[in-house]
Design a protein that fits this description.
249 residues; OB fold (Dihydrolipoamide Acetyltransferase, E2P); 8 strands; de novo design (two linked rop proteins); 34% helix; alpha+beta; elongated; three-stranded antiparallel beta sheet
């Protein structure tokens, strides 16, 4: 066998760090979301050493160019470089960023590429850094989260029907009330329904990604929470608990 065949094959890609945790005394394991290879687990050897080239590079929400090698499920990180240094997220935007990272970690499979979702995530990170308009807080972030949740479910094959009654096949009527059947879609709500009800107008607004109506934004939050919980299959989101704890302080 030629000597070159024994050399580890390096891969390279654009990436974002989703989460890191210690491995031994000097290393880290990084869960990363790459554009062309999907989610990967990478061993960053010696990344905690003071003189390591990786020290300080593996920060969440920063666009990276990375290389790695290996054939096991846990690959070895070769190098990482920032494509562009952005200001770090803070406050509500930081919590939103952690929430999106946790969704990707828990709902995607390793080595399952989602190029368009990666691009949408990268754009969402830019949007999260924009100044929050007004003084009420959160007015910008809710629509960003709802759009990302819908895009994520679509990429995973769980596209959310919003513009037609799945029982009759008829277009949604703005003035009518609907309930949403998970893994199917909206149906006309019976008078005695105890399920979450949504106005037809709210469903149509969501289909257009228009969240200017506060009623639509609230309805979208309730619906997406139900859908995300369903596809999580019992997994808990730590960022949701963090938000609840902060509200109690």
């Amino acid at each position: 066998m030629p000597p070159a065949a024994n050399k580890p094959r390096h891969q390279e890609d654009s990436a974002f760090v989703l989460h890191t945790y210690p491995y031994g005394e000097t290393s880290l394991i990084a869960e990363v979301f790459t554009r062309n290879h999907g989610r990967l687990g990478l061993l960053a050897k010696g990344a905690k050493r003071p003189r390591s080239a990786l020290r300080g590079m593996l920060l969440a929400f920063q666009p990276l160019a990375i290389t790695w090698f290996g054939k096991n499920e846990l690959r070895t990180l070769g190098k990482a470089e920032w494509r562009k240094a952005f200001p770090q997220l803070s406050g509500t935007a930081l919590i939103c960023g952690f929430y999106l990272n946790e969704l990707i970690l828990k709902l995607t499979r390793r080595e399952d590429p989602h190029e368009s979702l990666f691009d949408f995530y990268a754009d969402t990170m830019i949007q999260l850094r924009k100044p929050e308009p007004g003084a009420n807080g959160g007015s910008q972030y809710g629509p960003l989260l709802r759009r990302f949740e819908l895009r994520l479910l679509k990429e995973l094959g769980y596209a959310v029907c919003l513009d037609r009654d799945v029982t009759s096949g008829q277009p949604i009527i703005p003035s009518d009330q609907y309930e949403y059947l998970i893994e199917r879609g909206p149906v006309m709500a019976p008078p005695d329904s105890t399920r979450l009800q949504l106005r037809g107008q709210s469903l149509l607004d969501m289909a257009r990604e228009d969240y200017t109506d506060p009623n639509t934004l609230q309805a979208a939050k309730q619906l997406m929470r139900q859908l995300i919980n369903h596809y999580l299959g019992g997994q808990q989101l730590h960022t949701r608990q963090l938000i609840r704890d902060l509200r109690e302080l």
